[in-house]
Amino acid sequence: QVQLVESGGGSVQAGGSLRLSCGASGSPYIMGWFRQAPGKEREGVARIYTGSGNTYYADSVKGRFTISQDNAKKMVSLQMSSLTPEDTAMYYCAADRNVFSRYSTLATARYAYWGQGTQVTVSS
């Protein structure tokens, strides 16, 4: 069982930055950040393998977002910069303990555990 608690959402103007954090209990193998805008499907933004620290990003955020982890604090963060109104969404932290999966690492089906979500609003 993995429990996740997100924090750090808020409102910011375009071009600004925000940092999201996700505290995890248990020992997830992989953790990811997803977002869902009103009327749209939930999409994967970034993921990290907690053992190796290997990261992967969606093209839409590459170069602007950075996912990182603090193993001592059992936290994964998402540093977001150069934000645009298109980044406005509810952001979710996700985790899974399985090493192998037939799903892509940015697919929602890859993850069994989800946080409650934190809102990010970017104004123009």
Oligomer description: single chain
Give Rg in angstroms: 13 Å
Specify the structural class: mainly beta
Principal-axes geometry comes out as globular
Order of helices and strands: EEEEEEEEEEE
Uncertain runs with pLDDT below 50, 5 residues or more?
Answer: none
Number of strands: 11
Question: Strand share of the residues?
Answer: over 45%
Largest sheet: 7 strands, mixed
Average predicted confidence as pLDDT: 96
Which range best describes the helical content: under 10%, 10-25%, 25-40%, 40-55%, 55-70% or over 70%?
A: under 10%
Separate helix tally: 0
Distance between the termini: 40 Å
Overview of the structural elements:
This protein is mainly beta and 124 residues long. The chain contains no helices and 11 strands. The chain has strands at residues 4-7, 10-13, 18-24, 30-36, 43-49, 55-57, 65-70, 75-80, 89-96, 113-114, 118-123. The strands form 2 sheets. Strands 2, 4, 5, 6, 9, 10 and 11 form a 7-stranded mixed sheet that branches. Strands 1-3-8-7 form a 4-stranded antiparallel sheet, with no helix packed on it. Strand 7 (65-70) and strand 8 (75-80) form a beta hairpin. It is globular and about 40 Å long.
Give the secondary structure arrangement, pairings included.
Blueprint: E1 4-7, E2 10-13, E3 18-24, E4 30-36, E5 43-49, E6 55-57, E7 65-70, E8 75-80, E9 89-96, E10 113-114, E11 118-123
Parallel strand pairs: 2-11
Antiparallel strand pairs: 1-3, 3-8, 4-5, 4-9, 5-6, 7-8, 9-10, 9-11
